[in-house]
Design a protein that fits this description.
This is NAD-dependent epimerase/dehydratase family protein. InterPro entries: NAD(P)-bd_dom_sf. With about 220 residues, this protein is of the alpha/beta class. It starts with a strand and ends with a helix. About 35% of the residues lie in helices and about 15% in strands. It has one domain: NAD(P)-binding Rossmann-like Domain (Rossmann fold). The protein has a seven-stranded parallel β-sheet with strand order 3-2-1-4-5-6-9, sandwiched between helices. It has a two-stranded parallel sheet with strand order 7-8. About 35% of the residues are buried.
């Protein structure tokens, strides 16, 4: 059986980095597509550096599986309200770049795609963050991939080596841990989740040979 070729877009982020590690541990053929080089990259790892505004100029090789884990780094308050001055850039990164990359990979022959979205994503939401994520999800579904895996995590847990320290993050994570037993039913999906579990679930669904659209939330992350 021919080895599956995977492309990870956004390996410098939390989930993308975990996906990269998982594929490498499994001995898979994996390449990276990034806007900036990955630190401490092994010499045998193929990496394409690209200005995502120029995706049309990129000669995309054929890959079987595409993992997209890119997004704007927002402060906690910006998940509720994004300033006017930041909205255009946010939509460009979290919607336009994701869709353009997905379409480019599909045209090059990719059959399966996994993208990181957010819990509560809804194209009809009055919240710009959730609305943009929802519109991205709907557009991804229409491209034509045989398998579509959409991850909808809550707050991601993991080391962010390139992030500046934000005092509210550890406080928020500590508080969430205390209230976690009370978060049952639909609220369970809001529980904080490790980036590793998200990446592992995405990888497992992509390699399950199932076709269709799969939306992953807290339960799926914990069970895979």
């Amino acid at each position: 059986m021919e080895e599956i070729r995977s492309l990870v877009i956004g390996a410098t982020g939390l989930v993308g980095g975990e996906i990269l590690k998982i594929i490498k541990e499994k001995g898979g053929d994996v390449s990276l597509l990034s806007r900036s080089p990955l630190n401490n990259k092994s010499d045998d790892l193929k990496e394409y550096i690209l200005n995502f505004n120029k995706i049309d100029e990129f000669n995309m090789p054929k890959f079987d599986h595409i993992y997209i884990s890119i997004g704007t780094r927002l402060d906690t308050s910006e998940l509720i309200y994004i300033k006017e001055s930041k909205r255009e850039k946010f939509i460009e990164v979290d919607y336009s770049f994701v869709i353009n990359l997905a379409k480019k990979a599909f045209t090059a022959g990719a059959k399966s795609i996994a993208v990181v979205s957010a819990i509560g994503a809804d194209k009809d939401s009055s919240n710009l963050y959730l609305q943009t994520k929802g519109k991205m999800e709907e557009e991804i579904k229409l491209i034509g991939y045989e398998t579509v895996v959409i991850a909808q995590p809550g707050h991601l847990l993991g080391n962010r080596p390139n992030d500046k320290f934000r005092f509210e993050i550890p406080l928020m994570e500590f508080g969430a841990k205390l209230f976690e037993p009370l978060m049952v039913g639909p609220l369970k999906n809001l529980r904080f989740i490790s980036a590793f579990k998200v990446g592992k679930a995405m990888f497992n669904f992509m390699n399950s040979n199932k076709k269709g659209i799969f939306k992953l939330k807290y339960e799926e992350f914990m069970n895979h």
